[in-house]
Amino acid sequence: MNFDSFLQHISNALSLGSLYALIAIGYTMVYGILRLINFAHGDVFMLGGYVAFYCMTLFFMPWWVGFIVAFGLTGIFGIGLERVAYKPLRSSPKISIMISAIGASFLIQNLATVIFGGRPKGFPVPEIFNMVVHIGPVSVVTISLLIPVLTAALLTFLLIIVNRTKSGMAMRAVSTDLAAARLMGIDVNRIVSFTFGTGSILAAVGGVMWALKYPQLNPTMGMMPGLKCFIAAVIGGIGNISGAVLGGLLLGFIEIMIIAFLPTVTGYRDAFSFILLIFVLMVKPSGLLGRNQIEKV
Predict the structure, then answer these.
(1) For the whole model, what pTM was predicted?
(2) Best exposed site among 173, 180, 196, 237 by fewest CB in 10 Å?
(3) 152 domain-assigned
(4) pLDDT of residue 272
(5) What's the rounded Cα separation, in Å, for the pair 62 and 232?
């Protein structure tokens, strides 16, 4: 492999890793607040792509309007999902909430199959996202350039919210001790809804970017990316936003480098993600940037 090919693989890895990071942030935000693994997050990601698709093809919206509508509606759906599937079980054992999350995931997938149909749909990619940009010896499609930039911008914006605003301060308080935050006058329900809404919007952004990069939609498209982004969040230190980004980038780089250097095992690249998860949990169970925490019963 020559140096030019290596640079091409690096650009592909950065794009894929940034996409994983964008979706993993939603996982880690919800876990940081409620200690809940939202297994339906990948299905919210799928819904974002479908809503954008129908906005553009059924209602003939300009692509940028369709994307904004998709982000907003998916965020509202995420808030509704929390109110229906998780809020009634907030005082129940953790296993009950986990079962509810798994059930919500299967329910969304099957409803999507009934409503949208099981046959894959081609996503209409605007020409602006299909242009090829030449940076020295590397040729990059504009969507692959946009994804890392968008991920960095959203991460910066999110960190500003978490660290510099009253809502962010309340989120950190709820994350530390939900009961004590409620005693201090924090509206826990509002903070949880805000967290789910923000996480769902990020999932929708990831779903639309995924559809632009790999232009095909199907009701189960969120399953494997959802699992991989959960792995990325755990590797980086679930509950840590920067850790989720680090885990996503690491996962993307490993996956692309396996394709580049070990083409004979490309079909097993998903398995390497789980191998990496097991290795990190054995060496550092809290994740690369995570902190050891005592689970409250």
Answers:
(1) 0.92
(2) 180
(3) yes
(4) 87
(5) 33
